Each structure stands twice: as structure tokens, then as C-alpha cells.
Amino acid sequence: AALMIDALNAQCDALTRLYEHTIREQSTRSQPQDSVPRGKNGRDRGDTQEDEESPKKRHKANEDVAAAITVKEDNDACDAEKVDVFRMIVSHNPILMTLASFLDPESLVTTFCVSKYWNALDAFRSDETWRFICTRRFGVENVNAWEESSRRWVEIYREMASLNAPPFCTIHGSEAIGKGNVKGVSAWASVERRSNGETARSVKVKGKEDGFDRYTSLPIVEVRILIQNTASADGIAVVPEQTLSIDTSTRRRGDEMIEVLSDDRFQKSITNLDGSPFVNNCKPDSIGGEMFRLPLFDSVVLIAHVHAKGCSNIDKFISKANFTKVLLAINGKTMPLVIPFDKAQAESKRTSESLSAYA
Questions:
Q1: Which of 131, 201, 250, 294 could cross-link with 220 by S-S, CB 3.0 to 4.6 Å?
Q2: DSSP assignment of 240-260, as one string?
Q3: Which secondary-structure segment (H or E) carries 225?
Q4: What is the model's pLDDT at position 319?
Q5: Are 100 and 108 in contact (CB under 8 A)?
Q6: Distance between CA atoms of residues 289 and 183, nearest Å
Q7: DSSP 122-173
Q8: DSSP character for 42?
Q9: Closest to 290 measured CA to CA, from 234, 334, 251, 241
Q10: Could you tell me which residues are beta bridge partners of residue 301?
Q11: Please, is 306 exposed, middle or buried when counting C-beta atoms within 10 Å of its C-beta (0-12, 13-18, 19+)?
């Protein structure tokens, strides 16, 4: 890196000297000749003056030629040094490993297609590089579990990415119900099942007639959505302020379950994957407000409580719910991240758990 900076500085100095020489030469050519009266001996005084100044002009011209030669030699030396610096960088593995650590998976794979020479470089396909990528996306715990595998880490990453595997999370809901992906942002939805399986909770609502706050029993389901920026390296994924809803439409009518907003105890919250509080990274002057921002491989858990109308337990809620969606913006374009619920998978899991308990 230091040699590269020195080479760039030398190039800048050579270009500066060349520019000064060009300006000086142009100014000399643009000066008009003064009209001088002729002398008594028939020769122009200008000719006499030219003869007197000709040694000076010749000396000046020699200096200009020497300066031009010096500039050319400096440029040739800089070009040679530039080639040497590039070869030194690509031949020095620690520098390439550092560069590779700043690249996303798509960019790393792109380096394989640049040329045969780049494809032969080990830094962009080494196990150390791809193990670091796996750790950033899937978590240290998952990486440690795959440590005994004999496959290369690039193969492990490719397989887990194709399965849209979630990162390691300690506060994910007790029952997974669906997952989705759009434009390099993935989400996994789950519900938190209470010990008795019931959904009835005491909720503060406003009376329809008098408008006073009062408490009533309503079916409430806690939904947890793990959101991760899995591949969007060109732009940060921004999740704006929004009200979460669960679609429960049927063929005959449309319906949905809305997030509880009347009771502060069920206010929507955002946490890290280990349960620690999430540090707000939103822009305060954003239009419409933001909930959070996700750079590459960053992830959060969004916890919301919805009014599960007509669902006295979690099983009924899962059987009625179709999907949920989270609005997000990437590079200024807003789009929905739809998370369809896999009812068959949830039913199969409950059946296997029941058989295990019976056995």
C-alpha cells in the first residue's frame, strides 16, 4: 500500500511539471514581436537585439528540452513502478485476504470470472475467506457445528444460501411458521406458544361509546419476525414505520388480523438475535419514519402482538393465517417482503411432537 501511494505521488509530480512546462511554452509562443526602427547601418535593431538574445534563447530552449525529457523519464519510471506495485499486491496473499474480507459473496464469485489469473488466486476462494462469510451470515454457533464437515466452506455457503437458512438466534419463537425472501433480504416468521396454548390476554382498549380506557379479554398472538440482509450489498435495507398485519382471507371474503396498538404493554419491539436491545441506527430526518436499517448480513428480530380474531389457541391461529408482509426500501425503492405461512410443515411438526409425547 505504501509503494502504491509513492507511485501515485510520483505520477502527480510528473504531471504537474509537464503541465507547467506546457503553459510556459504556450505563453512564450503567444507573445507578439515588438516593432523596432531600423538602424543607420541598414540592419534592424530587432535583429541586433535578436543576435544578442539568441544565446539566452538557445539556453532556455535547451532547458525546456531537458525538462521535457525529465518528465518523460519520470512518467516511464512511474509506469514501471505501477506495474511492479500491482504485481506485488496480487502476489502478496495477506493484502488480497484483507481485500477479500470487504467483499460480499456475489462479488467474490465474480472475481472467479475476471480471468484465468484471477481465478487461480487462492485468496478469493480460500476456506478462511468463506468461513468468515459464513460466520457473518449464519453465526458462530452454526459455523462451529459445521466445523467437522470435510467440504469446503464455499460449498457449505452455497448449500445453506440455497436453503435460505436463518442465522443462529436465541429468541426465535417456539414454532416456526414461514419464511420469505426478496431482493437479497430474508425473513423468518415464528409464533411464541404459551404454556397452556391459549391466546386470551387482558388488553386495554378504548370504549366505543364513552371513549374511556378499559380492559377486556382478547385473543393475542405474539409474532416474531427475524429479518436479515443476506445479499443486498449495493444498498442498505431500510424498514420504515408500519403496522403489522396477518392475512386470513378465504375464497369468499378478505380479512386480516391487525397489530395491537391500544395497549403500550404490547407495543412493537426490536431486539438483536441474542435478546440484547437494538441500537437505533435510523436517520432522524427520514420521511415517514424508519424502524431500523440493515447493512449487509445485519439482522434483527421484530416482535409484534396481533389481535387473533376467533382464535382461542395457537393451532387455530396457524390454520387461519395465510401470510404476513413487511415493507422495506432498497436504493429508494419500496417493496413488500411477503412471508407465506407453511401450514403443512407446522401441522407435521405438531403431529410428530404429539407422537413423541405419546410414545
A1: 201
A2: E----EEE---SS---EEEBP
A3: strand 213-229
A4: 92
A5: yes
A6: 22
A7: STTT-HHHHHHHHHHHH-HHHHHHTTT--S-HHHHHHHHHHTTPPPP-SS--
A8: S
A9: 241
A10: 226, 271
A11: buried
Question: Which residue type is seen at 327?
Answer: L
**Which residues, 6 or more positions from 23, have their beta carbon under 8 angstroms from its beta carbon?**
none
CB 264 within 8 A of CB 215: no
| pTM of the shown model | 0.70
What is d(CA 177, CA 191) in angstroms, rounded to the nearest whole number?
7
Spatial distance between the Cα atoms of 269 and 291, rounded to a whole number of angstroms = 10
Residues recorded for the chain:
359
Q: What is the H or E stretch that residue 208 is in?
A: none
DSSP letters spanning 321-351: --EEEEEEEETTEEEEEEEEB-HHHHHHHHH
As a three-state string, the secondary structure of 17-30 is: HHHHHHHHHHHHHH
* Rounded distance between C-alpha atoms, residue 129 and residue 27, angstroms: 57
CA neighbor of 137 nearest in space, from 121, 123, 156:
156
Count of C-beta atoms within a 10 Å radius of residue 296: 19
Parts of the chain with a pLDDT under 70? 1-8, 11, 30-92, 233, 285-288, 345-359
Name the residue among 337, 335, 342 with its Cα closest to residue 302. 337
For position 17, what pLDDT does the model report? 76
Kindly report the CA angle at 227 between 221 and 228, in degrees rounded to 5? 165
Residue 274: the pLDDT is: 92
- pLDDT at position 344 is 72
Per-residue pLDDT, 92: 66
User: Which amino acid is it at 8?
Assistant: L
Q: Where are the domains of the chain?
A: 2-30+53-91, 98-162, 175-345
Task: Scan for cell 441500537, then name that residue.
Answer: 279
